[in-house]
Amino acid sequence: MDRIEPRPEPAHPHRPQPTTDDSITPGALHAFRARLKQPEDTIDPTSWAGSIPDARGTAPHVRIGRDKWFNLMWLIPLGFAVMVALIAVAQGLREIPAVQQFMHTYPGTVFPPDAEANAGFPAWVGWQHFLNLFFMIFIIRSGVQILTDHPRLYWTRHSTPGKEWFRFQKAVPDDPLWTAKQDSVNVPGWIGLPGLRHSIGLARWWHLGVDTLWLANGIVFVVLLFSTGQWKRVVPTSWDVFPNAVSVAIQYASLNWPTEHGWVAYNSLQLIAYFVTIFIAAPLALITGLGMSPALSTRMRWVSSRFSIQVARSVHFLVLCWFLLFIVVHVTLVFTTGALQNLNHMYAGRNDDTWVGFWIFALSMVVVIVGWVAASPLTLRKPRLIQRVGYALIGPAQRLFEHIDAKPGQYGEKDISPYLWHNGKYPETDEYRRLFDGGFADYRLQIGGLVDNPVELSLDEIRALPRHEQTTQHFCIQGWSGVAKWGGVSMSTILELVKPRPDAKWAVFYSLGDGPDGGLYYDAHPIEQMSYPLTMLAYDMNDEPLSYGHGAPLRLRNEVQLGFKMVKWIRGIEFVADFAEVGGGYGGYNEDHEFFGYRQSI
Predict the structure, then answer these.
(1) What is d(CA 497, CA 393) in angstroms, rounded to the nearest whole number?
(2) What is residue 103's three-state secondary structure?
(3) pLDDT for the residue numbered 188
(4) CB count, 10 Å around CB of 86?
(5) Cβ atoms within 10 Å of 340's Cβ, excluding its own
(6) Which phi and psi angles does 257 have, rounded to 5°?
(7) pLDDT at 2 over 50
(8) Would you say 573 and 446 are in contact if contact means Cβ atoms under 8 Å apart?
(9) First-residue to last-residue Cα distance in the chain
């Protein structure tokens, strides 16, 4: 069946009273459950995500001015030319007497008073170094995979096509129903994790789950750092660090390496680089990651109003760039400034030129390579394992943030985005076409399950209920966002109408549309969130009836969750004690088929 094209909504003059219907029982709602498709517990790349075809992006581009784009691949030859020029300039500077005197005064290393007493590296530094490296390969690979799901970065919350500052995808085509999923791209499997297009659900488990281990490792590192004298290696203790860093930069650039004293103290440029990485970049990675949480953003309005999700996402990306730059420079210098001695320092805790540190390093690289190579195949064969382990690691934080109630009033009409991305598989059934062509006059919303007063409501009856409006920001799991004004009925009003029983713990929303793998789209939400001030059934968007692409006739808004959980084209609501017997039992269609999490407050 062809995709339905959007058209204006007709008027709805008939407003009958809500109909209480004893026939809407849990048994009657089994008609919805019968249309759910049971998921697979392995992944076939050829049929993944509705057989979405592979799509490669473009070279990364940065916007220059209003409509010019600079291909960042040009940085390779330009960088080489600049490097050659810097070498020539630095070697020329070293011939100038004043520069020679400056470098004599500031040779490059500032020794703390007790540097000799704290010389060397305790064993915990080596272990922390290895664990940090091991965790980072999974964080970076999965982070790249997440970025490919929306390969555009913005500085405003609106995510308007053509306004991004960075992209590695073509311009958005002139298609009013172009979706964010269609806009996604892929990277080779040895780079991305797991390496499939639109595999953001599994990538997030890797990213967020390993993030918790990386964060725990970092906390232990900082505690040990400040409980010993090791902190003086990476924290400036004198203003002399800065002129010494300039001296070191000239020495490196001239290819006349500075005298290394790494066993006792790092040179000043190393010290500054470590300080920035440990105490600025790492905390910034955590802060910007939390800045993309819908629950925290809607609660901490004084922060998110200025520091939007797109600012957080862009800064998060720049932090990734810093980490990559640091890794490349760090590894290069380790192997060009005395590899055996440097490896002995870090891996063997000794200050000599033997091969002990090298062989320990080689063994650690075997572990890293095995982890790198095995991660994607393991994910494709055991995606449920990745889903369960990921939730075990990040789930406690998800549960904590999920109970942060959002408050209204953050945005006004002046904040409404000029464009809100479409997403999801559009409903194309004969049933939906009949309802759409008839202006939804025959539409009925069935609400039942564990309620005292099951009802069936027409769209007119829903519109006759007390009206609720809110202007809120939408957070998509793929990374885009936008602000819209929603009109409809509060879920609190629905709760008062149907009176859920005490044993009803979840509200399951069923769509008129199917998911990409076939079977009805659905999602489950905790019942306590149904009484939140910003949880509603919307039938209007920006003072107009919902369009076909945005969920007509009815869609859910739950502002502490990510967008995929806000079911569009709603057909029914069932209150249940547990979602374990609904669909695949994982809490929703994307949870069943694409291994998302049923708690998605981060």
Answers:
(1) 38
(2) helix
(3) 87
(4) 15
(5) 16
(6) -55, 145
(7) no
(8) yes
(9) 36
pLDDT of residue 314: 97
Tens-digit pLDDT profile for residues 349-365:
999 989 999 999 999 99
CA dist list (Å): 93 to 87, 105, 350 = 10, 15, 36
Asked if residue 391 lies in contact with residue 597, where contact means CB atoms within 8 angstroms, the answer is yes
Q: How far apart are CA 45 and CA 40, in angstroms?
A: 12
Q: What is the 3-state secondary structure (H, E, C) of 46-101?
A: CCHHHHCCCCECCCCEEEECCCEEEEHHHHHHHHHHHHHHHHHHHHHHCCCHHHHH
Tokens describing residue 294:
């819908």
Using CA atoms, how far apart are residues 119 and 233, in angstroms rounded to an integer?
A: 10
Confidence of residue 386 (pLDDT cuts 50, 70, 90): very high
**177 CB contacts (<8 Å, ≥6 apart)?**
3, 5, 6, 422, 426, 548, 549
Structure tokens at 154: 């913005």
SS3 content of the chain, % helix, strand, coil (to 5): 45, 15, 40
Q: How many CA atoms lie within 13 A of 58 on its CB side?
A: 16
In whole angstroms, give the CA distance from residue 440 to residue 12: 9
In eight-state DSSP terms, residue 186 is: B
Residue 11: predicted pLDDT: 39
Record the tokens describing residue 96, joined without a space. 């100038």
From residue 151, give the alpha-carbon distance in Å to each of 170, 281, 361, 533. Answer: 9, 22, 36, 33
For residues 263 and 116, give the distance between their C-alpha atoms in angstroms, rounded to a whole number: 9
Residue 156 CB coordination number (10 Å)? 15
The token pair that represents 585 in the structure block: 């039992």
Write the burial class of residue 274 (CB in 10 Å: 0-12 exposed, 13-18 middle, 19+ buried): middle
Of the candidates 136, 166, 149, 29, the residue with the CA atom closest to the CA atom of residue 507: 29
Give the tens place of pLDDT for each residue, 287-313: 999 888 877 776 676 666 678 889 999
